Amino acid sequence: MAYLELDRVAKQFGAQTVVDDFSLSVGKGEFISFLGPSGCGKTTTLQMIAGFLDPTRGAIRLEGKDLTAIHPAKRGLGIVFQSYALFPHMTAAENVAFGLEMRNVPRADRAERVRAALAMVGLAGYEDRHPRRMSGGQQQRVALARALVIKPSVLLLDEPLSNLDAKLREEMQIELRQIQRTIGTTTILVTHDQNEAMSLSDRIVVMSQGKIEQIGTPQETYEKPASAFVSQFLGKTNDFAGTIDRTVSPTQLVAGSWRAPAPAALGGPVTVSVRPERIGFGDTGLSAKIITRIFQGNHWLFQCDSECGPAIVIRQNDGTVQPAEGDAVRLTWRPEDMSVRARAGA
Amino acid sequence: MSAVAEERNTRAPWALTGPALMLFVGVLLVPLAMTVMLSFHDWGQYKGIEPVFILKNWKEIATDPYYAEMFWRTFRIAILTTLLTALLGAPEAYILNRMSGRWKSFFLLVILGPLLISVVARTLGWALLFGGNNGLVNKLLMSAGAIRFPIPFMFTETGMVVALAHVMMPFMVLSVWAALQRLDPQIENAAMSLGAGPLTIIRRIIMPQIMPGVLSGAIIVFSLSASAFATPAIIGGRRLKVAATLAYDEFLNTLNWPLGAAVATLLLVALVLIVVGSNALIERRYAEVFR
Ligand SMILES: Nc1ncnc2c1ncn2[C@@H]1O[C@H](COP(=O)(O)OP(=O)(O)OP(=O)(O)O)[C@@H](O)[C@H]1O
Ligand SMILES: [Mg+2]
Fold first, then answer.
1. Chain B touched by A99 (CB under 8 Å)
2. A346 has a pLDDT exceeding 50
3. Please, what is the angle between helix A166-183 and helix A136-148, to 10°?
4. Cβ contacts (< 8 Å) between B186 and chain A: which residues?
5. A158 to chain B nearest CA, in Å?
6. Structural domain boundaries, residue B98
């Protein structure tokens, strides 16, 4: 049963369609990420849920009730903005208390909930600090506490971690996930960082140019990308041009000197996608030459020049001897590790 | 080598700022010092200015209630003008800031446009509209039967405040405008998402944040109004004098330069004290918003 439901939502600014045919149903307690490149309409979609923008078409429902009919101030959603949008003239505690004041929560009760919210995000003792005197990470936590203290039905996060440095971002990701797990608030996170989306979410909505490319668990979107866009956007991938040869029996998929039994549905020119970590060095397969070999601690990164164009290979540093730069190698992978799509225009 | 370079380094800033510094000393500090000295000189109807050091002028200002009343009027007008510009200018800037692109630039131009017109011309405009029986508005209202006597405007403090507020408005609007630009563009949405209505947002979120802008605008407007000459001269004439017009009169009509210098000096000192003092107060009060 869907908790939050977006039904064919679209948004136009003048003649420009920014979000189109966006349908999604979110279960209660689920953690969803909107992932996509800059300008693909993530913020616009989030703002429509929040009520700062009205959808041009479509419906948004929360527990079956039409959300668009409710004023943004009455929706009871918690929102964390990319810039945090803290109230600079109020202390951390006053910032967090603001939403409770608006709900007429009695003073004593309010103080207790503010204290608990700040403690939850690890800011106990910072009650009387003003935002300007806090670090980016601390401001971020205040913004999160302020959004959560009102016990929102849905938590909306618009690139909340993008202003933080890499290390702090990772810490906050873990913390965010823990907090979300503990209190079980339905959460939608906007991000253009695929690692963030994959490590945090139950499901990812991959968007491109205002349209949904794929909805799926992190593993599904990574391993079974529904389109070339998804496979390119989520992590590195190798695309090899191949053909399906139906003149031989059984029919064969051929990419350079690599060949395997062809999948049933397709024929003619195809694109074969393989993740770099799924490619190994063998005795048969795509012939290639290693251009560079980069040591990265727990793994090796090889950049190769293959018969079907450039290829990237990642090998675990498991102690086995690895080929050197300039070596001629054969690239091979298991048929179940690749995804094959019909190649247009060839 | 390095010693030469270092010497040049210490000399370079002086050489570069020298011309401006000389101009500053020559046209500001020296005349100012001379004015202060002038205020201690003696003056007589027939003997003219005598370069002696006496406290006669200062004693006269301190004891004659005429001066106390005149200074009190000057500051009363300046305060009322400041209040009026703040009351009208702050909402004006806020509304302006919420307008969309094209209208915003158009109305900003409308607000700043008057700065291009001379203060004298703008004030004379008020005189044309409300100047006694012949003022355009007065005539219109009287012939329409709305009023029986012309609205008193010329030679009144109210008139002076209204005309000054009109002249000073751009400074207040610009100052508040600058404060509004510093607001986080999502701050109103943030407050709204927490359940605040439009009035609460203005009162609890916007006002406290633009207060420093209103106050710094108020300092500008106050000091400009207290030392304004053209507007009080036209509206108040010689009947309703303020410090600046009084100093002018002493210099050019009575020819009592020392007394005029004393009035001017006192106005300057009072203004500097008020401005510096209130500025310090504001900065301390709003430290967290500025930093
Ligand atoms: N008020 C507006 N008027 C006109 N066009 C707009 C408006 N707001 C957004 N757009 C356009 O809509 C598109 C999507 O914007 P949106 O902010 O949703 O992107 P985003 O996915 O959040 O990107 P980013 O990752 O950069 O934040 C952009 O091309 C943008 O130019
Ligand atoms: Mg965005």
1. yes
2. no
3. 20
4. 81, 83, 85
5. 12
6. 65-290
